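Ticket 4471: requesting a sanity check on a complex prediction with nicotinamide-adenine-dinucleotide. Repro inputs:
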Amino acid sequence: MSKQQMSMVSLNNFIAGRDRPSLGSATLAVTTPFTGKAICAMPAGDEGDVSAAVSDAAEAFQDKRWEGLAPSLRKKILFRWADSIEAQAAALDQLDAEDMGKPVSVAAFNARSAASLLRFNAESIDKIFGQTLPSAQRSLVMQRWAPRGVVAAITPWNFPTFNAVLKMAPALAAGNTVVVKPSELSPRSALELARLAVEAGLPAGALNIVLGKGEIVGKALSLHHAVNMVSFTGSSEVGKLVLGYAAQSNMKPVLAECGGKSPHVVMDDAVDLDAVAAMVAATITTNQGQWCSVGSRLIVAESIVDELVDKVVRGFERLVPGDPLIASTTFGPLASARQRDRVASYIDGARRAGARVIGGGPSLPEEGGCFFAPTVVIAKSVDEPICQEEVFGPVLSVLTFRDLDEAIRLANSTAFGLLAYAWTSDISTGMKLSEGIRSSVLLNAALPAGEGPGHGFSSEPVGESGMGMEGGVEGIKSYLRRQTVWLNF
Ligand code: NAD
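Returned structure tokens:
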């Protein structure tokens, strides 16, 4: 621990409804990428903290202090919590902006949308029920949904408030108790969310937060025998480790929402190229390209590539880079110096492989050193890392195709399968694309976010993008197990 860290305010874990200092003495600094300065210290994590939180959550599950409440009361508590998240939305967005650079002006996946996501989950509490199966006379076969028990939620840094609620809300709506391990880059909003939950009436112990490094706290949670499910969002690399920990311990189910390399497939059949270019430029720069379903590959008909790339690069000029806390800023720094170096190394590699690299957008602040300009890379081969690996930054790789089959082949050419955007004015071509592409497909559309389909849709990733269902009512069922009761009478 450095002298600076010793004098900084240190965050505590949140266990059994109150702050609890870590049992370990090692700390980490939380720094803001805009200035590169430390904001506070946090525990590096300790397996003892994990045991304390899990045993507390297990006790809270066993005595049914949450699951046992009337559904109407559980709804009321979650609604009250949603109201206070909404009331504190500006403060939560500010914490995330400071911790990892998401501009407060960016509405996508902000605290307000987290509040409405929580309401969607609360509303579903009394709308998920089991089935009675046809059976022989004098027998009754019931299938009911039962909560799984203690759910460990491991979250990434890219939308800290939203991604935490995306796990907390369905896990709690299903009647489980939860231990959340937020990313060490952005731990503060999860703590605030847990405090607001307890103030709203969530019983102590139903929602706990344990801070620390992934390889200590995330690993200990995933290996813990009293944890009944892990809900993980993060990189495919760590997702695979978590699956391994589950296998090594109690074979707990794992919901894994991992990396992506989503393509924009653009046909040459008279789509509105200005509109497509605006969407491509917007998706690759939202949150500085740091979101799982970002359209990071442009797969475009050979005849229109130059025109489209030119329009996309011009679209970058509309960005307003700067302090993510200022309302006019639309483009902040990358989340950390490490992330910036990672993104830069992909560009260096692409240059070495002979790709054409086009930087764009207005000039960037030098402060903090974590800004990275939106960049287009015209690749020579689909096999290059820039076309295959998740960069997680404002970097768009470009490949061209000559016909529909080649477009589909390129779209499916990575290990990932999260989402694809397809642009065509021909409905029949659009349907052929959506049949051929293995991930979920948005046809001439942006990702639905917020009220309505934004909260209601669930999709299942394929390949190394993960496994299991997140989102919507089906997503709540991921946190329930199906129990059969067979009664003869
Ligand atoms: P990451 O995999 O590095 O970390 C995610 C979480 O796992 C963090 O809390 C981290 O501390 C923890 N962790 C790290 N090592 C661990 C270990 N050995 N055992 C258990 N936990 C461990 O990911 P990140 O850099 O925080 O986030 C970016 C990644 O998240 C990208 O790959 C992005 O695509 C993915 N993501 C996916 C979705 C989705 O819905 N598919 C949504 C958001 C982000």
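Notes from triage: The mean pLDDT is 96. Leaving this open until the requester confirms.
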